[in-house]
Amino acid sequence: MNISIRLLGKDELKLVRKVADIVWPVTFKEIxxxxxxxxxxxxxxxxxxxxxxxxxxxxxxxxxxGQNVVGYxxxxxxxxxxxTAKLHKxxxxxxxxxxxxxxxxxxxxxxxxxxxxxxxxxxxxNRQNAKAIKAYDRNxxxxxxxxxxxxxxxxxxxxxxxxxxx
Length: 166
Prior knowledge:
- This protein has 166 residues and is of the alpha+beta class.
- It has a single domain, classed as Aminopeptidase, CATH 3.40.630.
- Helices cover 36% and strands 36% of the residues.
- The protein has a 7-stranded mixed beta sheet, sandwiched between helices.
- It is globular.
- The protein starts with a strand and ends with a strand.
């Protein structure tokens, strides 16, 4: 494996959707209904949504094994708390999980946020996503809040808000 992480250009955002189309159904099949997965995919990964986030300063990074995209992390400023950045998304293809790459991605996001002057990195994780919660715990994130956010169509995101000091 030759793993690298690099900033994506706006014209490469389709790589994020390519990975999400594989990761999301696997990650959430036991947690969310197929209807909610489909709804959230369009809510978060439609080209117009990602283009708008990109234009607003959200940073999209691709994780590559050589030339092949195998994951992504997306982060940016968080308006809800001072000196806090938000890790919006951090996903890796199932065949690459369990090899330390996810921890490398989290450490990279923490380092980038610290270098940008932030003191904290915050994220939301589904309360039933035990595998991700364990990974975040291992990488210095602590649960600070429990939230139930309505997202439309009668769906909710039932999350823990976790934060790491940088």
